[in-house]
Amino acid sequence: MRIALAQLNYHIGNFEDNTQKIIDTIAQQELAGADLVVFSELCVSGYPPRDYLEYQEFVEQCEASAHKIALACTKVACIIGLPIKNDVLAGKDLYNAAYFIANGRVEQVVRKALLPTYDIFDEYRYFEPAQTFKCVRYKNHTIALTICEDLWNLGDNPLYPSCPMDELMKESPDFMINIAASPFSYQQYQERTFLLSANCRKYALPLFYVNHVGAQTELIFDGGSLVFDKAGDVVAELKYFEEDVQLFDVEQVQASIVLNREAKSTSDIEEIYKALVLGIKDYFRKSGFKSATLGLSGGIDSAVVCALACDALGAENVLGVLMPSKYSSEHSIKDAEDLASNLGCKHTLVSIETVADAFESTLAIEFAGLSPDLAEENIQARSRGVIMMAMANKFGHILLNTSNKSECAVGYGTLYGDMCGAISVLGDVYKTQVYQLADFINREKERIPINTITKAPSAELRPDQKDSDSLPDYDVLDKILFEHIERRKSAKQITADGFDEMLVRRILSMVNRAEFKRYQTPPILRVSPKAFGMGRRMPIVSKYLS
What we know:
single chain; 546 residues; alpha/beta; six-stranded mixed β-sheet; 17 helices
């Protein structure tokens, strides 16, 4: 028996394209000699469809698409994922399901039991958990078919007292298939491989695992579909961050023959780079846009975002706008110009000095007798925001936000100013990681000017301003933020790790106070295990300081 794993890039709600992509792949793999073609979780609708699932027509279009796929699947079998109606009056209206299709019709329906509700996942909002489990039988093989989370636990989670595989094992399956939608984070590969490998050993069965690839707004799927033997060893691995379809012989997998191993990077920064490029590329492609614009300050953040955008979209589709103020240094302007020259992207210069002066003149009576402070600094940032949005509107660009995770965490950014944008590229990348990304981008030649990397970071909103005037060194700040955000440690726990108590409490207080800003930021491309946005939900008005 030969199984094809189809790791494809879907578009949420684009039923015509998703369906045709699946049908074309079935036809190609039929010619290649496949017996079964396996697609990923909710491939028909795209993942995650979220509240589209509350629209009856959306679910009906999923079913209509599945019918078209079935008609095209007569000589081979396939497995597709889609939401289906729950015909029982009790419980939720839908199931997260898989169709096993053969002979031009749906032969069997498998429903997902373990519905994740942690971090970015909210499946129990929409779906009813399955209660019954049955193997699929095809070409003299008994197949334990599961959907994502149903094979992501080891039977020791108190939230999931019943494990689908324990029930399926009663039918003595020959191997397992798991269809999934597992988003990327730079720690996900290790967790994913560990859990799936452990289940192979637990049940002494080979596993064919197929994942999504591509970005859906902030979520990025890295692909990397896997084949394991019964000892839990990876014997085949599909590509990362791109579509891939590969054909495997079940008997070879059962014999533990190593078939193919994708050369996966061991560098978190390289993985983050690839994820961000894919995230930008798919955001534009799936939104129907081709060109990007961003403000170029001569600083490290905008330089890295510009380089990523050029790699994702082509330099000819990127416009950098230099917006010097009366406080901007000559070297910042030159660094921005050198960057644009190195990358080959378009750039233009629009001074904000007269715009900011006009705002200050307009407010002169109201501000009379008051010393310049944050208000005047933010006027400059908001002047830039107005210019950038005007440029995006006039020329049909998408504005890229350049704020990093460190700044987002402590509120070191101006609403409606430098926090403007349609998508936040670095909002899940700490400042120290931004420097590592710059080094990676420069790995073959100098694309980001060395002066941009080596100079002290500054917002340049007042004379001789440095980030260090307001914030601790990023090496220290990022470590504290990581312990608090990713590892969910309290101030007491972080202090016990050796950090100064007053500094820790000050930073965590800044994080809490800045929550209202994060509610108004663009969607953030997620690359870490705990990103701001849908996976981290904090109250704005609170007094608790953990």
